[in-house]
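Supplementary notes (optional reading)

For those who missed the lab, this is the record we used. Protein: EamA domain-containing protein. Length: 198 residues.
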Amino acid sequence: MSAIFLKEKLSVRFIFLATTALMGSYLISFGTAPISLSFDGKEIIYLLAIGAAFCWGTGTILSKKVLDKVEFPTATALRFLLAIPISFAFIFMLKQSYDFTQIATGDFVRFLIIAGITGGAGALFLYYWGLQNTQAKISTFAELMFPVVSILIAITPLNPYGSPQQISGPNIIGIIILLASIILITLENHAQKNQVHD
């Protein structure tokens, strides 16, 4: 989408590295397990997942457009102002509810820590600050660090799904592949910027 809407150029090397990064991300999330789609009454879950991925990708594109017109603190505030009511709208449309009184104090503190590390206001503030001078295509793949952060949280007592998980060999290989791909994508982008300035 960045190539279409922002006219960012995609080199053959970038496409190769991007594909490699996605492979690493898959290993982090699923290991060597094959893809198995079984709807079994879960159609809405798949649709929401696809919608979330689409919104995440378009969010980066729209954010770049917004940053051409406003400063990054304003862009951060706009993100919250738009995201919160949209989230509540989906909650009401899907008739979802949650009894917050059922959350144990320890779990609540753990969720707050995870939110602060991965996606709180501070994280978004830094994100928009960096996005000012970063192409959307680079930002999109840098955002694949989220699975790495997720798995690092999962192997600690902060794991929101219970006791710490064991990290597998494929997970480690996926982390290495993803990190190497992101670093090489960043270096290529830096080299292209230097060529433009020269």
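If you only remember one thing from this example: The two ends are 28 Å apart (CA to CA).
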